[in-house]
Amino acid sequence: MIARRRDHALYQQLADVLREQIQQGAYGAGTGFPAERELCKLHGLGLMTVRRAMAILREEGLITTSRGSGSVVRVPIRRATVVLDADSCLIARMPSAVERHAMNLEPGVPLLEIRHVRGQVQVLAADQVEVTGRSTAAG
Amino acid sequence: MIARRRDHALYQQLADVLREQIQQGAYGAGTGFPAERELCKLHGLGLMTVRRAMAILREEGLITTSRGSGSVVRVPIRRATVVLDADSCLIARMPSAVERHAMNLEPGVPLLEIRHVRGQVQVLAADQVEVTGRSTAAG
DNA sequence: CCGGATTTGTACGTATGTATT
DNA sequence: GAATACATACGTACAAATCCG
To answer: B62 in a domain, yes or no?
Structure first.
C-alpha cells in the first residue's frame, strides 16, 4: 500500500509498484500503459507524484512516453558492438541539451565518449551499443 | 532574455543561462549558488521552472545540491582508470533505485557494468572512472 | 545545546499549450 | 473538429535538513 512515510517518498513507492507490475508482465511489451490521470485516480495521488514516478521508469528504460498517445512498456533494445582499442579512453556522461537534440536522444540516455589513440573522438548513445576490448589475437 | 517560446521551454532557457554563467566563472568552483526562490525572483519564474532547470545542471554534473544548505558549483572530478580486457563487455545504464541507494549515487549518474571474460561482473559509477583498452604490448 | 532562519524536498491543485488519435 | 493524453508552468503548503547566533 502506498502511504506517506518519512523514508520513502510517494513517487518512489509508486515507481517501485509500477516497476514490479511491468516486470511481472502486467502490461505486456509494446502494449499500453495507464494514462497519467488514470494512475492518479487508481492510487489516490497527485499529478506531480505520478509524473515523477513515470520519469523514474523512463530513465530506467522501462517505458517510453509520447505526447498525445501515452506510455508503452519498452521492448528490450538490440545493441551494436563497438571495439575499444588499446590505450583509447571511454567516458560515460549525460548529454547536454544541444547533444540530446542533435542526436535525437531520449531523456536519461547517457553518452559514451570514446577517445581513440589517434585523436579521433566518437560519441555514441549508451543504450545502443556494447563496448568490448580488442581481441589480442586479432590486434 | 527568458520568454515563453514554442520551441524552447522556459526551464531549458534558464538552464542555458545558468550553464553559461557557471562556465564563465560567475560563481566560482565550490562556491555558493543562488537559492531556488532567489532564482525565481531574479528571473521572474515559478518554482517548478527553476527546479527543473537546476535538475538539468545536476544531471550534467555542473552543480551539487544539498537540502538545507543549497547548491554549489562542482569542482571537476578526478577519475580512476579501469582497464577493459579483450573480449570483455561494457554496458552503460542508469542505476535502479536500489543500486543508487546502495552505492550512494547522486541522481543522474550512469553505471558502467563491465562483464569480464571469466564471468566476473564489475559495476562502477560512471562519473568516477575512465575506461581504457588493455595495452597489446602488456597483454 | 537550543531555537530561529534559511533552503531544499515532497506534494497537491490548477491552467494552458500541443501532439496524437 | 473533437476527444484524449502528455508537456509546461504557476502558486501554495508543509516537512526535513542545515546553518548560525
So the answer is: yes
Beta carbons of A86 and B135 less than 8 Å apart? yes
> pLDDT tens-digit profile of B2-25?
898 888 999 999 999 999 999 898
In a domain, B26, yes or no: yes
Give dist(CA A96, CA A61) in Å, integer: 19
Beta bridge partners of A123: A113
Q: Domain check: are A93 and A55 in the same one?
A: no
DSSP string, B17-73: HHHHHHHTTSS-TTSB---HHHHHHHHT--HHHHHHHHHHHHHTTSEEEETTTEEEE
Are B60 and A131 in contact (CB < 8 Å)? no
Indicate if B21 and B66 belong to the same structural domain: yes
Q: What does the pLDDT look like over B121-136, one tens digit per residue? A: 999 998 888 888 775 5
Tell me, yes or no, whether A2 lies in a domain: no
- Check residue B105 and report its DSSP letter: P
Residue with cell 509524473: A51
